[in-house]
Amino acid sequence: MDTTTAPFLARWFGVMDSTEPDDVLGLLADDFHFSVVFSTGATDDAAARDFAGGRAAMVEYLEQREKGTRVHRLLATGSSGDTEFVLGEVIRLGEWEASFVASALLDGAGRLRRLIIGRSPRVAFPAGRG
């Protein structure tokens, strides 16, 4: 995957998949705000959770994450000005688990101001689309 059109998000997910995911905290701008909508795919109303807020909420999000079980594979990337976009898939213990989309707004110093991620196990995108 050519990640040159979304280098920040490629780095972000690389750090999240590493043994030190907390290192993403060093990538945040002072006015950082995010939302990660995480769906389990269940049909009840409790099937999705929205992790959202600023730096403190990101710390809480990182604390609850399983470490070393999931990796993010980027399938498509893009950018427009200071905003990057990715479509990807989550692989858990070697098996496909979910698809996700993410968008990041960067400041002039290349730090993350805004992040939104949506994840669902209900839709898989075909691999190998050129």
What would your notes on this structure say?
It is a single chain. Strands 2-1-6-5-4-3 form a 6-stranded mixed β-sheet, with helices on one face. The chain has one domain: Nuclear Transport Factor 2, Chain: A (Roll), CATH 3.10.450. 15% of the residues lie in helices and 46% in strands. 19% of the residues are buried. It has 130 residues and is of the alpha+beta class. The chain has helices at residues 7-16, 55-64; strands spanning 28-39, 48-53, 70-80, 83-92, 95-106, 112-120.
For the structure shown, list the relevant keywords:
15% helix, 130 residues, alpha+beta, Nuclear Transport Factor 2, Chain: A, globular
Beta-strand content bin: over 45%
Largest sheet, if any? 6 strands, mixed
CATH class: Alpha Beta
Structural class: alpha+beta
End-to-end separation in angstroms reads 9 Å
What is the total domain count? 1
Number of strands: 6
Q: Please give the share of residues in helix.
A: 10-25%
Strand arrangement within the widest β-sheet reads 2-1-6-5-4-3
Radius of gyration over all CA atoms, rounded: 14 Å
| Overall 3D form | globular
**Would you give the CATH topology?**
Nuclear Transport Factor 2, Chain: A
H and E order: HEEHEEEE
The assigned CATH architecture is Roll
Q: Average the pLDDT over all residues and give the rounded result.
A: 92
Number of helices: 2
Stretches where pLDDT falls below 50 for ≥5 residues? none
